[in-house]
Amino acid sequence: MPPVLPARLAFVDLETTGANAACERVTEIGIIRVGPEGVREWSTLVNPQVRISPFIEQLTGISNPMVAQAPLFAQIAPQVREQLAGHLFIAHNARFDYGFLRSEFARLGACFRARVLCTVKLSRALYPQHHRHNLDSLIERHDLNVSDRHRALGDARLIHQFWSAHAGSATLAETLAEAVDAQCAHTMLPARLDDTLPDDLPEGRGVYVFYDSTGTAIHFGRAKALRTRVLGYFSQRKPPAAAKLAVAAQAARIECFPVADEGEAIRLELSLRKRLGAAPAGRE
Fold first, then answer.
1. Can you list the pairs that 138-144 forms with residues at least 24 positions away whose Cβ atoms lie under 8 Å?
2. What pTM did the predictor assign?
3. Per CATH, which fold does 9-183 belong to?
């Protein structure tokens, strides 16, 4: 049976005071919800409780005076959760937006989780012949209608347009559904692993180590995309080879070490080989 598109979607964009979710804060949230009830838009400025730099103010147009009287994230957190509940979380470079929301909720002592779809990855899957998939490239390539660029609701509208252009096409909808299904492939983690693992894995290049319940390293390797590589050991959509299944069955903890380049990854992998004595993974 061919995959079908999810019924409830939330196109999300955030503006922030910087790029690091650990120390920067959200300044604006824009959400477009699509479902049986139709299309509904919601947005709000957020008081980040830190200063907005001149660079960010110039980029987004959001200034310190604009957010001074805006609600704190703590005041709108219940509304944000309600807006996103039961919806597929869709964003451009989704780990950025999703990571910031998770960090804001974590500061309140709360957990936020959602099924996530990244439209950068979606564009790469649909148009592998193109090298650039940032939002400006999608605007130009698909003739998207721009309003309030670099503002949360304006950018959420752009990814909604990108989606609608494909979902509304008889020739493209099936391809879109297949790409969405591949990106949202289900993973089944063993009970010993924390179920928040998929949300916490880094995206980029690095080295990973699997440990068993005794804390002994049993497997390691390097990857160009750590999150994709590690979750591949637990995929239900495309079951891994027997050797990977055996490692996954023993895994009680997974440690990832992001690196800057391949040279650093090779050096770290060699160091781990000498220190851990674990079985290395096959090359990518």
1. 138/92, 138/162
2. 0.80
3. Nucleotidyltransferase; domain 5 (3.30.420)
Q: What's the CA gap between 227 and 221, in Å, rounded?
A: 13
Q: Taking a C-beta distance cutoff of 8 angstroms, is the pair 275, 215 a contact?
A: no
> Which of helix, strand or coil describes residue 255?
strand
Torsion of CA 85, 204, 104, 234, to 10 degrees: 40
Query: 68-88 pLDDT, tens per residue?
Result: 999 999 999 999 999 999 999
104 touches 73 (CB < 8 A)? yes
**118: which 2 tokens?**
């990244």
Instruction: Identify whether the C-beta of residue 12 lies closer than 8 Å to the C-beta of residue 153.
Output: no
pLDDT of 90 above 60: yes
Widest pairwise Cα distance in the chain: 59
- Tell me the domain boundaries of the chain: 9-183, 197-280
- Looking at CATH, the fold of the domain delimited by 197-280 is given as GIY-YIG endonuclease (3.40.1440)
With a pLDDT cut of 70, the percent of the chain lying above it is 96
- Tokens representing 31 are 């959400």
Task: Give pairs for 195-204: CB < 8 Å, separation 24+.
Answer: 196/111, 196/113, 197/254, 198/227, 198/231, 199/98, 199/102, 199/113, 201/226, 201/227, 201/230, 201/231, 201/254, 201/256, 202/226, 202/227, 202/256, 202/258, 203/95, 203/227, 204/258
